[in-house]
Amino acid sequence: MEFPSAASSPSIYKLVDTYKKAAATAASVTAYAVLARGMARELLPPDLCAAVRWGASLVRGHLEPRPAERRTVVVKRMEGCTINCVKFNSLYDDVSEYLATRIDPQSMRRLCLSGTGARKVMSMDSGDSMTDVFEGVQFTWTSVSGEGHRGPESLELTFDAQHTGMALGRYVPSITAAVEQVRRRDRALKIFMNEGLSWSGISHDHPATFDTLAMDPLTKQAVIADLDRFLKRKEYYRRIGKAWKRGYLLYGPPGTGKSSLVAAVANYLRFNLYDLDLSEVGYNAALQKLLIGMPNRSILVIEDIDCCFSATSREDDKERKTLPRANYGHGDDDSEDRSNTVRCISITLSGLLNFIDGLWSTSGKERVIIFTTNYKDRLDPALLRPGRMDMHIYMGYCGWEAFRTLARNYFVVDDHSLFPEIQELLAEVEVTPAEVSEMLLRNEDADVALLGLVEFLTAKKQGEKDSVKA
Ligand SMILES: Nc1ncnc2c1ncn2[C@@H]1O[C@H](COP(=O)(O)OP(=O)(O)OP(=O)(O)O)[C@@H](O)[C@H]1O
Fold first, then answer.
1. Which residues belong to any copy of the AAA+ ATPase domain (predicted)?
2. Ligand 1 atom 29 nearest Cα
């Protein structure tokens, strides 16, 4: 091994030299300081010595970092308690649920475990603490037991005083939002149908999602973005004094996926569906009762809206306004002599829209309303007016991109030798996603199913040609 010669590395010698000088200077300064202190003690009167010591401690106090001031927010388990009733604080549950997902079992000396079956929930024992980091700031949670040590009665949040604004303005709200999101994701969905004046529900386990939905990709993105914006805008709706609701009109030929889109929206938002059959609703007051009975986070669906209200319904409305109120069927819901015809026409489109706007504007809860139709041109212009339905979504025939989604759904294939032929045929033939799905479902073997689809599309193309000739 070769060491560098002195001639070849003068910089090392320079460094050593500088270091020696610095060390000598530091030693001299220390010696002078000790000497000065000794002389001052000898020569200065005791009062002056004390004054100098006090001044030095003052300077030190300013230079040394002081421990940060801390703040504590207490989240009690119970908000109030009387002899008859105990009021629990829902924020306590939110925080407990959140901390259960943040707890690091490795770092906890003691750990509480609860839950049934495979689902185990972790929590801190009374007196224990854990740290959570939010936007780079540390927040400490401590579980504090109540009187008589009957389990943890409050959760205390401690943080540096300078982060008080962040703690209350962003950190705690983010906990509630995160818990809400998890609860929504885990919630089993239901679909309700109206029976008389009430709703009856069954579980809704429709597999449709935006991933499985075959539709124009840009329209799909626009719908998703609109739903996301809607969810975030509670304050906005409150500020402008409008009901926190969003209305969608889905239109297009039968079998293009309108019902599938409704299911996909429900799955995306994790909202329950309320499928309203207007022919079952006798009169406006009954409709009002049903609408009031819909909780927040729900979707009101009225399918084939063109069959419920014709384009002449506004004229019907005008005529009805000149008749006595009793003629609209504002009577007892159970009266048996009311004919079906009266039951159907008693509800008016304007009644429905006004109820929705009026009733829901006061509740401040998020709701979605979806109308579907195969015939947009048959709809009452009142429904199509800007501002009535927030988004009109066309569900059209199966295009190339929609087909690729279906092919991925059914066979997990992104490419195939028959794809170019299918792409050409889809550009020429009007075929619904339902028809394509049906063809793809016929055989589990992608080659066979896709060949069947080519034959089907070719036959359809020929049929269309023949019908044009005839
Ligand atoms: N866009 C689509 N994406 C995925 N699957 C679809 C689509 N359209 C139709 N399908 C398939 O066809 C079936 C019927 O479609 P759907 O009921 O959603 O159509 P629709 O437009 O609501 O029809 P209708 O107007 O007759 O009620 C669905 O269950 C699904 O399997």
1. 244-399
2. 260
CATH of range 190-394; options 3.40.50.300, 2.70.70.10, 1.10.10.60, 3.90.1150.10: 3.40.50.300
The residue type found at 355 is F
> 3-state class of 346 per DSSP?
helix
Letter for the amino acid at 371?
F
Cα separation, 38 vs 54, in Å, equals: 17
Nearest CA to ligand 1 atom 13: 434
Distance 431 CA to ligand 1 centre (A): 12
Find the radius of gyration of the CA atoms of the chain.
Answer: 36
What are the Cα distances from residue 137, in Å, to 70, 167, 207, 230?
Answer: 13, 9, 41, 30
Index of the ligand 1 atom closest to the CA of residue 260: 18
Report pTM.
Answer: 0.64
Pocket probe for ligand 1: among 215, 223, 259, 438, the residue whose CB has the most ligand atoms within 8 Å is 259
- Amino acid at the residue 217: P
Range in 147-156, 157-166, 241-250, 316-325 with the lowest mean pLDDT: 316-325
